[in-house]
Amino acid sequence: MAVSYSEARIEVERLVDRFAGLRAHNLKRYNEAATRQEFILPLFDALGWNTRDTREVSPEEQVSRGFVDFAFRIQGIPRFFLETKKIITDLDDPQWARQAINYAWLKGVTWAVLTDFEGLKVFNAEWQETIPIRAIFKDLHWQQYLDRFDDLWLLSRPAIAEGALDQAAEAVGRKAKRSPVSRLLFADLTEWRRELFRHLRPYNPMLSVEQIDEAVQRILDRLIFIRACEDREIESVRLHPLLRQWRDQGRKKDLLAQLNALFREFDAAYDSRLFAPHLCEELTSDPGPYERVIEGLYEVPGGYGLYDFNAIDADVLGTIYEQYLGHRAQDPEGKQVVDRRARRKAQGIYYTPQFVVRYIVGQTLGRLLEERDYEQARQLKVLDMACGSGSFLIEAFDVLDRYLANMRGQPAASAGGDAHDLARRMEILTGNLYGVDLDTQAVEIARLNLLLKAVNQRGLLPPLDNVRQGNSLISGTPAELEAAFGPDWRAKHPFKWEEEFPTIMARGGLDVIVGNPPYIRIQTLPKDDVAWYGNHYRAASGNYDIYVLFVERALELLRPGGVAGFILPNKLFQASYGQQLRALLSEQQAVWRVVDFGDAQVFEGATTYTCLLFLRKASTLRLTYVAAGDWLKAQSDQPASLPDDLPEAIVDGRRLGEGPWVLTAGPQAALRDKLEAAGPPLSEIARRIFQGLKTSADAVYILEKVSERGGLISVMSSAREKSYQLESDLLKPLIKGGQMRRYLIEEPPRVILFPYTDGRLFSEEEISSRYPLIWQYLLDNKELLKEREEGRFAGEHWWQYGRTQALEVMALPKIVTPDIAASASFSYDAGGRYYFTGGGAGGYGILLDEGWSYLYVLGLLNSTPLDWSLQQVSSPFRGGYFSYEARFIRQLPIRRINFDDPADVARHDRMVALVEQMLQLQREKAEADKFLLDVRHDLARQIERLDAEIDALVYELYGLTDEEIAVVEGRS
What integer pLDDT is reported at residue 783 of this predicted model? Predict the structure, then answer.
């Protein structure tokens, strides 16, 4: 039960009174354990922490050479570490502060607390201070606990959950932040990798770039494993003495040979593929770079102390190694030779933030564990089909290890442990976790990270053959594969699940599949891959993204009742290419939870709009929809976890189908149903909804207008970087999305050369005789136009547009809309004067059937309720923008007028009159914006009032209640 501020203060006052009653000779009798039991833990109990619940306050968090006493957690994530001392300890002794601060920093946690109850110090482990005492954020004496209770309250569970301590620190604005351990170690790994590669390449000229690159990685992997064993006290310190001895011998012995001898010893002790004989042991090199790497694996740059590979969590190493996979190796001359970052981005691969990993694993494996008994839990099989550095598998290991340890009454993963502890970990590594990745080095790194997670004592380690290289999407017989890919089909690394994991497939498949599949559009894939996918996947339709295939494959690989969780683009809900996958998921009623981040950004360095999609291979009639975008945008730093109290809605899964998914429930769902029932969708009353022109050579056809005189227009050509005078007849005003305003088309600064009439291309004779200046301009650009699209237009009519869409309708009266806007921005081109392009910064046009008033429909489309309806289904973009593409606007419900009903006719005529007024006001305001400030403000107020009148009329037309209007306007 949550504690209140006043309740906590009363309890702390009791503790303070009790402490004040102690005499000096009694204080000396309190050892550390008694101090904890009688004062420190009760203090944190008073602040709302349940110190008896080890999931919330876990005791004895082990450091490689000692212990930090407690980790205080919310939702399993440590928020601060507590180091306790006996009463009358000198807390100003730097050794106590240094231990607490460094442990918190190595764990990636901001806060460390040191107390003997008599005093309490709060340190910010992120502050860049080499002297620990300068990292103090709060320093309290027991006699100040009540007078400065606001400061003490910052450590309460409610305040920590709200981020109050972080906010208070931000308000102070103290100095530069200390670089996270992940950033420093990554920087070191990058430099070591570069230096090793630069030295090994000329010394070993017979080896390929790829072989050198692989050898460098294996060397670094081995050294990190050895350092982890040292810091966990599984092994004595091995690398430093080896280096010191080599130096003492005057650097005469071969350092590489001594390292290789150590590798052979580790191979015998651990029998892991990591130390199996490898090319890296056959290299020759100057020992200098090896010396610097070994030194660097101990000393943290900047004088912060030593790297502690026991305190650095595997998920931190996962982050480092995922960046490491993207490192750009260089040859000695600096020429780029390996660019894995470009390769992995081309493969659509981005490192998944840890809060997403934890949530996905918790909602899949975690939930299954709640439904299983001990023996069933031991049999669970967890797969990541694109495992990368293994972050999802590492989290799954942690979740399983905690569960099985708890059921057996054993400690969860930590250094040390007995044979039973090691056996449990090996059982999980070899019997529960499975990974596949196309990148061989990703596979090796995933194996290393899992071994680092599990190793806690000397002993044989498994080779981890259950983490393998392969293409999760390509599987078949040799004959099928050769027919599809030719004699070199093995280069595709096909992965036949029945052969690779026969036991799992024989039992019906996987229990849990998690991950972050690659995001790649098919245009970038090899043609034979696309052909294979088209023949083997239902979801391979349209210009799809490859992640849809991973979802379909996951459904195939799950056993009945199994669950899957992915982070995916949320375009899946609306994109036309997602139609077949939506149909498949709907038919199987497989979706049970969706967490939508909207336009909030999850991945660092990539603009991708994402969601978390959870599936169960069982009929699920209701799904839970969680809107997490606003929450994520409000976070100043990457969050540690997703909170439990985000807004949720229960959606009837039977409403889903192959069409765009509208994931709303309750009043919102009912309101959408009501709006849709009020009239036909726009697509049924529109003669045509069309995208703008596509020239495939905009630099030639789109021209900046300079001036106009006597039937000629002076223009600037970006293709030729020079000005021309051209005949005005074939130059049409070109509006971009930015000129399509709400009820207004701004006069554009550009024109488009339009060599067509009624959709027919002008012939060479017609243009050259009637428009000689334009013909000369086209001739100036002839080679460029002929070379378009790999010479597709090298024939007779080389001056034609790249596509023929919208040529015959562009000159007609039409409603236009930009393809992306923050809110409805429909405008009316009554004379068909304006032309526009498709694609980015382009737009769409709407031609209505006979009998429909353009002004009436324009008023509906720009109204608040219909814009609310569109934003329920449209794709969101960063900055609060939405897509107004045809596939979204075509769904908007248009209220049909009953012309036999005088009241309905009056509403129709009223709307037309209001829109006429609005068009006039917008034109007047556009003129006033140029110079008449007072008039402009007055017109803006009139427009605002007129907008409200139009909205009120639309509410009446659609019969919305006050409660429904509140939903539309965001007041409920």
Answer: 92
Quote the percentage of the chain above a pLDDT of 70.
89
667 pLDDT above the threshold of 70: yes
Helix ranges (DSSP H) in 507-589: 527-536, 547-557, 579-587
Q: How far apart are CA 83 and CA 312, in angstroms?
A: 18
Crossing angle, helix 391-408 and helix 440-454, to 10 degrees? Answer: 30
> Which phi and psi angles does 481 have, rounded to 5°?
-70, -40
pTM, to two decimals: 0.70
722 pLDDT tier (thresholds 50, 70, 90): very high
CA-to-CA distance for 967 and 296, rounded, in angstroms?
59
Mean pLDDT, range 830-841, rounded to an integer: 91
Q: What is the C-alpha to C-alpha distance for residues 964 and 972, in angstroms, rounded to an integer?
A: 9
Give how far Cα 450 sits from Cα of 170, 272, 389, 398, 766, Å.
36, 12, 9, 10, 73
Given a cut of 60, whether residue 195 has pLDDT beyond it is yes
> Starting from the edge strand earliest in sequence, which strands make up the sheet with 881-883, in order?
820-821, 881-883, 876-877
Task: Give the Cα separation of 491 and 240 in Å (integer).
Answer: 42
Please indicate whether residue 488 or residue 229 has the higher confidence score (pLDDT).
488
Give the span between the Cα atoms of 188 and 298, in whole angstroms. Answer: 11
Question: Quick one: pLDDT at residue 316?
Answer: 63
Question: By the 8 A CB rule, do 513 and 558 touch?
Answer: yes
Per-residue pLDDT at 451: 85
Q: Is the pLDDT of residue 907 over 70?
A: yes
Q: How far is CA 809 from CA 466, 682, 854, in A?
A: 60, 18, 16
Question: Could you tell me the fold of the domain covering 5-172?
Answer: tt1808, chain A (3.90.1570)
Q: Which CATH superfamily is domain 354-471+506-519+554-663 in?
A: Vaccinia Virus protein VP39 (3.40.50.150)
Question: Which H or E element spans position 752?
Answer: strand 750-753
- 594 SS3 class: strand
First CA to last CA distance, the chain? 29
Task: Give the residue ranges of DSSP H helices in 288-390.
Answer: 288-296, 314-325, 340-346, 354-361, 367-371, 374-378
* CA atoms in the 13 A half-sphere facing the CB of 221: 30
Distance in angstroms (rounded) separating the CA atoms of residues 541 and 960? 39
Averaged pLDDT, 502-509: 94
Instruction: Name the H helices within 37-138.
Output: 41-46, 94-106
- Please report the beta strands in 85-178, taking only residues with DSSP state E, as ranges in sequence order: 111-115, 119-124, 136-141
CA separation, residue 142 to residues 13, 88, 167 (Å)? 10, 12, 24
Instruction: Tell me if 107 sits within 8 A of 311, measured CB to CB.
Output: yes
CA distance 476 to 464: 24
Q: What is the pLDDT of residues 346-360, one digit of tens each?
A: 444 557 888 899 999
Q: What sign for the dihedral angle of Cα 382, 455, 298, 194?
A: negative
Model confidence over 600-645: pLDDT tens digits?
Answer: 888 766 667 889 999 999 988 889 998 888 888 887 777 778 888 7
Q: How many CA atoms lie within 13 A of 868 on its CB side?
A: 22
Lowest mean pLDDT among 290-294, 295-299, 407-411: 407-411
Comparing 930 with 465, the larger pLDDT belongs to 465
pLDDT tens for 51-76 read 888 878 887 554 444 456 788 988 77
Query: Closest Cα to residue 451, out of 211, 232, 190, 193?
Result: 232
Three state DSSP letters for 193-245: HHHHHHHHHHHCCCCCHHHHHHHHHHHHHHHHHHHHHHHCCCCCCCHHHHHHH
Domain ranges for the chain, please list them: 5-172, 181-346, 354-471+506-519+554-663, 687-958
Overall residue count recorded for the chain in this entry: 972
- Name every residue whose Cβ is closer than 8 Å to that of residue 920 and which is 6 or more positions away in sequence: none
Listed in order, strand segments (DSSP E) in 4-110 are: 57-63, 66-74, 77-84
Classify the C-alpha dihedral 62-180-445-209 as positive or negative.
negative
